[in-house]
Design brief:
By secondary structure, the protein is of the alpha+beta class. The chain has 2 domains: 253 residues, 2-Layer Sandwich (BirA Bifunctional Protein, domain 2); 99 residues, Anticodon-binding domain (Rossmann fold, 3-Layer(aba) Sandwich). It contains 16 helices and 16 strands. The strands form 3 sheets. An 8-stranded mixed sheet has the order 1-5-6-11-10-9-7-8. Strands 13-12-14-15-16 form a 5-stranded mixed sheet, with helices on both faces. Strands 2-4-3 form a 3-stranded antiparallel sheet. Helix 1 runs antiparallel to helix 6 and helix 7 packs antiparallel against helix 8. The longest helix is centred in the middle third of the chain and has 18 residues. The radius of gyration is 28 Å and the shape is elongated. The structure holds histidyl-adenosine monophosphate. Histidyl-adenosine monophosphate binds next to strand 6, strand 10, strand 11 and helix 12.
Length: 434
Amino acid sequence: MSGQKISGVKGMNDILPPQIETWQRIEAVARSLFARYGFSEIRTPIVEHTELFVRSVGEVTDIVGKEMYTFTDKGDRSITMRPEGTAPAARAYIEHGIANTEPLTRWFYMGPMFRYERMKTGRYRSFTQLGAEAYGAMDPAQDVEVIALCAAFFKEIGVPDVVLKLNSLGDGSTRPAYLAKLKEFFAPVIGGASEDAKRAFEQNTMRLLDSKEEVLQDAISKAPAIIDFIDEGSKAHFATVCRLLEKIGVLYELDRRLVRGLDYYTRTTFEFVYQPKGDNALGTAGTVCGGGRYDRLVKELGGPEKPAVGFAMGMDRLVLLLESVKGVQRSAPTLFIGTFDGPERDEAIALVMALRNEGFNVDFDPRGGKLGKQKERASKVNAAWFAGYGATEAAERKLKIDNMRLPEGAPKETVEISLDGLRAWLNDAGKRSS
Ligand code: HAM
């Protein structure tokens, strides 16, 4: 029916001003920091062949089992809107033969991912990840570089109370022995669990450790930990990762239960979790970043034998966090110019446009109207200064500029600036008010 309102899809958010500025700030920090760490940006399509995620993330995972947006396209292909960025990046890495020309490859990406999840604070069906993947280095220095990059990033954007949790899953060689132990351990309790859990028990026992099912919680807390089963090479690798992190001053906590919800990991796994002392803006969605090493994935997807390590951060969660710490910050005009009806209005508008084109943040109200109303608008957009431009100002070639950001009760502050000196004054005022 025409005229009826259509709302957005559940769990998929619009990002509008002023919040967009927090996003842009995070993006700007990421671009600059990731470049300094030697990572280049990639952009891959939103959709991929479904099989890519089934084979990488794993068939018996929550993501592939129940959260994917999958459809058949007009050519009868099964297509999935990407639930994560590691598999698409690996697919592109293989497809373009990057390993042949660039033995060490470091990429990053930012973009929307899709998971049909139960929504709550910080958990959405369309969300944005900021991720990085490094291919070609087996050395623990590579694990440490990506972890250090995350730590530097949180520091630079100003998110406090983020704790690094660290574990190792081994290189895969000892996993069958571990899985056998785990199966033996869960066998007595699995009868009382859901069909999903029983399927995980049969096909992918480690996934049981992520289960939220009440009946399994006691067993999960006592289950054998994979780190006690890992091979000697992985043990030495992990020890070096820990030693190097200490050397560069990145604090971490060992977390023997950290197995991550995707199947491709080998050796180092990590998460950064928001753990403040008081209120928690993210509730239970406190994991702001997850990652680890995945030395087998590229080969398993039909590529060369190339080790890799990476991470992805949840940008929606970072934005919530930053806003809870710093509030919504919006950029504001340095000067707002009020106009009057009459021949000088054209001049005033021309002055605003000229100043903007020269790089100054100057605003006006294109609706014109009473000066008082225009001043209200200036205050609404948080302009630092306000000046009317009419016949007197045009004739005397100077502006009377009022300070709009005085504390309550403070006496009025007005400065007189000649039009010739306006640019120099704006330069200075812009620096002081930003
Ligand atoms: P992940 O742990 O599934 O890992 O997701 C990484 C981060 O994305 C999470 O820690 C969280 O901050 C954010 N995230 C995940 N799901 C949602 C959601 N529904 N709403 C909001 N934020 C969400 C991966 O995706 C791996 N690809 C990470 C990786 C890269 N491992 C190696 N390289």
